[in-house]
Design a protein that fits this description.
Number of helices: 17
Radius of gyration: 20 Å
Distance between the termini: 45 Å
Helix content: 40-55%
Strand order of the largest sheet: 6-5-4-10-9-8-7
Order of helices and strands: HEHHHEEHHHEHEHEHHEHHEHEHEHEEH
Largest sheet: 7 strands, parallel
Structural class: alpha/beta
Shape: globular
Strand content: 5-15%
Length: 406
């Protein structure tokens, strides 16, 4: 198959958290080297030649340059990002040599990144978005995407959430059906929000380009990879504490929503001291039972004599509209709930199966002069979301005194 247009055409067609994380990495770990690995949880068989087309799309990234328009927008909306970081972005160039793509005879896909953390960190979301959209193009499923109907359905989702009092944002870049699908969603939800009065609100999108296009607030803070990398370098027991320390050093109290579940609630709770509980404005629930996790959060704040009703809790664990509304009803008065909804917003077409794909940090070394990498893993509140080699998972679980997997 030939003649597929370039899928990523804007430098900021990416999630805000990749930029904020990149800034923190340069500030705290400028020489750290990393390896990432793609994982298709559905073990999908990709069309013949998919690897060839994917390599072409990744090579197209080398043409991207951040524009003055994008920089000026980020400066206006993201005052927490230091001025020096924009100089870095202006000089940043993607290099396809950081990426290794292979496809086996059965059609399964292998993608790996390796390089300086501050460079490779800006690949994950773009490459996932490319893989997702390219799959539908090469299977022909993209021809079945009805955007007029999708606009109406997206408006309806926004209307229901606003009426229910939910504060919500689009988190759907990574597994979107297409660039056009996310554009359609953000446009519909903004126009619904602007035309309607209700207790809830569409607060913005994680995608910086679409936030710029529709003059919205880009939403995002950090990802598990920060804590995973630190755990690889220094061990998992204090990785949350070190991550909070590094984050606060870069952002001085701004961007204060901490993603706590990298190694489960128990070890995070032991690291979450009163000073950080007061500094960070809230926590993000990304795995486990949403209601049980909220109860644990409330109890922790209570034990520190902090009123949980003043703290934000962001829910982002594979949500749909119905589940978000249920959580809203449960959480009201207990915290300041908000919702980041991804695939359900940007890849919810009838007859189309969303890609169940991730790219996770696999190994890390503190500096390029080290002759070896240290492997890492993620142990969330959902055992099915554990990522990493089994021996590493077992070693981390032993270090954290977690029960062995059956």
């Amino acid at each position: 198959m030939s003649g597929i247009p370039q899928i990523i055409n804007w430098f900021t067609d990416d999630d805000l958290y990749k930029f904020t994380m990149c800034c923190a990495v340069i500030d705290n770990y400028p020489r750290t080297q990393v390896k990432y690995r793609f994982n298709d949880r559905d073990d999908t068989v990709y069309p013949p030649g998919f690897d060839v087309e994917l390599r072409k799309q990744i090579q197209h990234l080398e043409n991207l340059r951040i524009t003055d328009q994008e920089v000026n927008f980020m400066k206006r909306k993201c005052s927490f990002i230091p001025e020096w970081f924009y100089s870095f972005l202006k000089g940043f160039r993607y290099d396809s040599r950081w990426v290794k793509v292979e496809q086996d005879p059965e059609g399964h896909l292998s993608v790996e990144f390796e390089g300086c953390w501050s460079n490779t960190i800006l690949l994950e979301v773009k490459v996932l978005a490319i893989i997702s959209e390219l799959y539908y193009i090469m299977t022909g499923e993209s021809r079945n995407l009805d955007y007029k109907d999708y606009y109406a359905r997206s408006w309806n989702k926004a209307e229901r959430l606003i009426d229910a009092g939910c504060f919500f944002s689009d988190f759907g870049t990574r597994r979107r059906a297409s660039f056009e699908a996310q554009d359609c969603v953000v446009k519909a939800m903004k126009e619904c929000n602007d035309s309607k009065k209700g207790p809830g609100r569409f607060t913005g999108t994680s995608n910086v380009y679409f936030a710029m296009k529709y003059d919205l607030t880009p939403i995002g803070t950090m990802a598990h990879e920060l804590i995973c990398a630190i755990a690889g370098m220094y061990g998992p027991q204090m990785s949350n504490h070190i991550a909070m320390q590094a984050w606060s050093q870069t952002y001085r109290g701004a961007l204060g929503t901490f993603l706590y579940d990298t190694y489960g609630w128990r070890i995070f709770s032991l690291n979450f001291s009163e000073d950080y509980a007061n500094m960070f404005k809230g926590l993000r629930v990304d795995s486990g039972d949403n209601y049980k996790q909220l109860d644990l959060i409330i109890e922790k704040y209570r034990s520190l004599n902090i009123d949980s009703a003043t703290k934000q809790v962001v829910f982002s664990n594979g949500l749909n509209v119905d589940e978000a509304i249920k959580i809203q009803r449960y959480a009201e008065g207990k915290c300041l709930p908000s919702f980041g909804i991804g695939t359900h917003f940007t890849n919810d077409f009838p007859g189309i199966k969303p890609r169940n794909i991730v790219i996770k940090l696999l190994a890390v070394k503190i500096t390029e002069s080290w002759p070896f990498y240290c492997e890492t893993c993620k142990l969330s509140e959902d055992k099915g979301k554990y990522t990493g080699n089994k021996a590493v998972v077992d070693r981390f679980m032993e270090a954290l005194h977690l029960p062995k997997l059956k």
